[in-house]
Amino acid sequence: MESSTNWPESLPSNRIKAIQELTNGQVLTNKLREMLGQPENIKADIESVNGVVAQILGMFDNTLSILSPSNLNGIPHNPNNDVITTPNISDDQKSVVSDESVKTMMPVKTKRGCYKRRKTGSTRTKFTYTLTDDGYAWRKYGQKTILNSIHQRNYFRCSHKFEQGCQATKQVQKIDDEPSKYKITYIGVHTCNNLQRAQIIDEGPDPMDNSILISFGKNTTVKNNKVGTCFQSTKHTPMEGNPSLSYLKHEQVSLSDHDAPWGSVMGASQVQSYPMSKFSSGLDYENMVSPGVFSSTCSTHDYDDMAKGHDLDDILFEMYS
DNA sequence: TCCATTTGACCTAA
DNA sequence: TTAGGTCAAATGGA
């Protein structure tokens, strides 16, 4: 590590930490470049490459955490940086890569339900009127009634959790006061290989840049070019998180005039318009809260209201915690 | 048969 | 003690 230790005293500690993180990232990026310069080795050691990528992404997350307004101590709190999760390797192999950190991060699975509850890791909370495709494949793993809350909270994990050790999760809950509004909490950072656009979407934009607002509909406008790149999306598991939408499996489409007004929370990805009337036919509204490509659970009514009430713009607020 | 969701049970942090 | 987060068996759809 080539980071300097002789920081000017006037520099806030969080800036120093941020610089250190970025310096680490620089080193890792150089390392990655070296790897990429030897294509013959990449095939043989793709796991190492993935590992480096994961570290770099974690570094970014840490830096963002440090520099976020809510972090006055300059303490990186990204749990995924505690562990360098190497995609495509088994747990056993993982323990070789970073045994200690894995212990601190991975749930201790000795028996059912035995795990280490996440402490305040790297989380991002968004409020949005539309449940959007954030570019990742999510899988629902739980649903809970929350105290003093009318609506249940839905829990999603990255679909690549087991195959690639991705620890990212998210929680989706309707706001009591505004039923058409959702609170989406992203916990942790993706370390999976599903990075083609997902990382750009989820990690790319400057967290301070709230201008990432995509408007779909007739006059589709995309602010922020970075987001625009996301639309050359990969076709990923469309049904993640929403069995109710399974019948739509073959309708993967790209942006079009009738695309749903789901601007992306962190950027955008392809979204679809579907016969929403099917959604309202006796299906449990709460149960339909879904992430991933089909990120909406709105009934036809809600959907229309959203479109009219918000001029097809995704309205979101973002907080870092 | 496979895969994703549902849901009750289990465990931990507060 | 309790609320929240996760697990995993059961269930259902393709």
UniProtKB/TrEMBL annotation:
The keyword Transcription regulation applies. Gene3D superfamilies: WRKY domain. InterPro entries: WRKY_dom, WRKY_dom_sf, WRKY_plant. This is WRKY domain-containing protein. SMART domains: WRKY. Residues 127-190 form the WRKY domain. GO terms for cellular component: nucleus. Keywords: DNA-binding, Nucleus, Transcription, Transcription regulation. It is found in: Nucleus. GO terms for molecular function: DNA-binding transcription factor activity; sequence-specific DNA binding. The keyword Oxidoreductase does not apply. Pfam families: WRKY (PF03106).
